[in-house]
Design goal:
Number of strands: 28
Radius of gyration: 23 Å
Helix content: 10-25%
CATH architecture of the largest domain: 3-Layer(aba) Sandwich
Oligomer: single chain
Strand order of the largest sheet: 2-1-12-11-13-14-15-16
Number of domains: 2
Number of helices: 11
Structural class: alpha/beta
Shape: globular
Length: about 475
Amino acid sequence: MPQNNRTSVWNGISATGNLSDRFLSGANETVTLGGLAGGSCLGGRAEEFRGRSVLLWTTDQLSAALALIELDGIARRLVLCPADLPFEHLRFVIDSAAVDVVVSDRIAPGPDIPSGVSFIACSPKIVRAHYDHTVERQTEWILLTSGTTGLPKLVVHTLASLAGAIESSGASPSPVVWSTFYDIRRYGGLRIFLRALLSGASLVLSSTEGSLADFMIRAAAYRVTHISGTPSHWRRALMSPSAHRIAPQYVRLSGEIADQAILDHLQVCYPQAKIAHAFASTEAGVAFDVTDGLAGFPAELIGERADVEMKVEDGSLRIRSTLIADRYLGGQAKPLIGADGYVDTGDMLELRGDRYYFVGRRDGVINVGGLKVYPEEVEAVINRHPQVRMSLVRTRKNPITGALVVADVIVQTPPEALNGQAGQLEHEILELCRGILARHKVPAVIRFVSSLPVGATGKIVRQPCVMSS
């Protein structure tokens, strides 16, 4: 196929300065980008992938990262498979993306991979191999949505939509070392992966096998300066003494609503850092960053800007930009982009004064006697209490109202050590809620727990809610 004028991932990296000073660090291996320039993680077999649909099915993030760099512009399609994908979904992904080769660090293909699909091993170790990395095509990058139930949706991006608005700043006057709690095979992690490498920085990857404390210790050892994660990632991190091992210059939150409590807690823990939160989704891309230390975002961002257009319709945020994904794969019933060119994010907003606040997901609303309750709105209030570390609001069936609002709450004192304090603490939290929330939004029950379910995506796991009619 003829070349086009697109820049591959590798060309973008190699244009940013001294490759020997920058690195990708996984849980067990560290690779300099200079070493990658003369080698391969695929044993020099890159030519075998030209024009093919490739599934990256690795347990190790570093292996996936190196394969992405090597195969962009060569493969027709790259499907990024997170380590937490259920095995029963694997065949669906392979069929939907017309996968004909699987790249993996696993020993054997396994029964869920069709016999006609090639299986090629990759490794986080680089071997010397020279191959022609001519950019022949605009490779499709396929990301899976992070829904907690049902089959994932396959979202089609290109490098242009994924790496858009990332500036290649060249050499920095001081070393920049990025890290992220995210898996780089999810949208949030992939953006950090590209941001780090295309801006001339190093990157420390997280691991699904190690503990959060181990990850923070490793990040500290590499002197991480910039780090990102969901609010749930950060709430859990701040519960660990290891959180104080790092001294970042920049802390970023995305993927969930960043309430004022978590923003304030991070600023106290990292007083030297700029605390930012961003809105992004797999389908709609990155819409904006907020750096003023406040929850929500200024109303003036709604409307047309140079790179992103946003509007609020029926209370939901809708986005149109060059960062939007192209389409869904696999014959999804609902089009990704509306007739007006906007993506309906399903994230609900409320205007208070000159600022918009996220109140929750449209599909997560609880119906209490015909009245709507967004769990995230209630959690934001509960999290204001100085003793609260994290909370999860959910629904409980009720014969009169149909549902009640209940809350599971982690506080600084372990539940078994609360003793007589539990009643007083519950009273204080409920009084806080009554002073701010409408009556039907106030939890009927507060339950103190030692942990809350957080999925591999870094988002708190929510049970299906009783939907409003």
